[in-house]
Design a protein that fits this description.
2 domains; 357 residues; 4-stranded parallel β-sheet; 9 strands; Rossmann fold; single chain; alpha/beta; 13 helices; disordered C terminus
Length: 357
């Protein structure tokens, strides 16, 4: 039995996207079926393939104008739906056309950016990772994962250019708040945090028996309600922040913007007495410059660093975790692990039956 069956037409770039998703998603904790020997249209199915489709938990469809004309893809969708289990998902990943035959919510990132039919070696990694993590999020939620509210206080490129004291790092920002790339990284903040939670913790941290997913407040877009001039609108957005698992990420340069500073302080005051909160400030420092050196040190002294970056269970009392200035992405993951391991009373979800958390 597989967690995911990938349906695709055996034409590029559809096949390239399908194979790339298989290589990314497939793991001992997240099994994926990808028919590498896929034949042309009109070839009869064998019984083993039909049984694999029937017993798979979820169907990811690489949906395009080519897939729409493929009898093979259409048959896989029909057969999966005919045998669909109550908690199974059909997840269309649209490349160049709308999901006109699907009632399910589709992943539109590829289509909306006009990527198709570019080759996968030209595919922007931030865009690709967003698609991967949308798939993971949908499946984790269906498996009963718990939400962690997430808000990042940062700048857009437009706001950064208005601040004369940070002109040297304006290329770390983009059109939207979610485009911020801390540490001089080529990955934006959303993809950094998504990988930590969906891969490093949900799939690898066996001490955490509960699956989690991000529940984003409205902070990502440049017209975000979180940064509205109206405090009433802002207060409505964050009204439940102090009662849930939550993560506040601060770009310290964003404190130069008075409105963002006010919003962060307001959230900080709400979350400071919440033991399920994690509050972090990410700095630029010289992290990217020292990354190779840090990696070599961890390799040479793994016995010591392994305990540090995989901290044990900590029984916290009433205060939020953090607040620390992080100069390395692994420090962020470490703090997130501590925050999630500090909580008593979390019951395991049934997630994937072949997992051993």
């Amino acid at each position: 039995m597989y967690d995911i069956f990938i349906s695709y037409t055996n034409q590029d770039p559809d096949r390239q996207i399908a194979e790339k998703l298989y290589n990314t998603l497939n793991s001992p904790y997240f099994t994926v079926f990808f028919d590498k020997e896929r034949l042309g249209a009109g070839t009869p199915w064998n019984e083993q393939l039909q049984e694999t489709l029937k017993t798979s938990n979820h169907l990811v469809v690489i949906w395009s104008s080519k897939a729409n004309q493929s009898q093979w893809v259409q048959a896989e969708i029909a057969n999966f739906r005919a045998n669909k289990k109550p908690n199974s998902l059909v997840i269309p990943v649209c490349l160049d056309i709308d999901p006109n035959i699907f009632q399910e919510q589709a992943i539109m990132d590829f289509k909306n950016t006009g990527f198709y039919p570019a080759q996968t070696n030209l595919l922007d990694e931030n865009l690709y990772n967003k698609v991967v993590n949308r798939i993971r999020t949908a499946i984790y939620i269906e498996a009963g994962s718990k939400p962690i509210k997430r808000v990042v206080f940062t700048l857009t490129n437009e706001k950064a250019q208005q601040l004369s004291n940070i002109n040297s790092i304006t290329d770390s920002y983009g059109e939207h708040y979610a485009d911020w790339k801390p540490y001089g990284s080529d990955q934006d903040i959303v993809n950094i945090l998504d990988k930590f939670l969906y891969v490093d913790i949900n799939q690898k941290a066996k001490e955490i028996t509960t699956l989690y997913h991000w529940d984003d407040l409205d902070w990502k877009e440049k017209d975000s309600r979180l940064y509205s001039d109206s405090l009433d609108v802002f207060d409505t957005e964050i009204k439940d922040l102090s009662d849930h698992h939550c993560v506040l990420i601060l770009d310290p340069f964003a404190l130069n913007d008075q409105l963002i500073k006010e919003r962060f302080v307001w959230c900080y005051d709400k979350c400071y007495m919440n033991a399920r909160a994690l509050i972090m400030s990410l700095t630029y420092s010289l992290a990217s410059h020292f990354t190779p050196l840090r990696s070599q040190l961890r390799k040479d002294a793994n016995l010591f660093y392994n305990n540090y970056f995989n901290p044990p269970y900590i029984n916290n009392s009433i205060l939020a975790n953090g607040f620390a200035y992080m100069i390395d992405s692994l420090e962020v993951k470490r703090q997130l692990q501590i925050a999630l391991r500090s909580q008593r009373g979390d019951q395991p979800t049934n997630a994937f039956t072949h997992h051993s958390y």
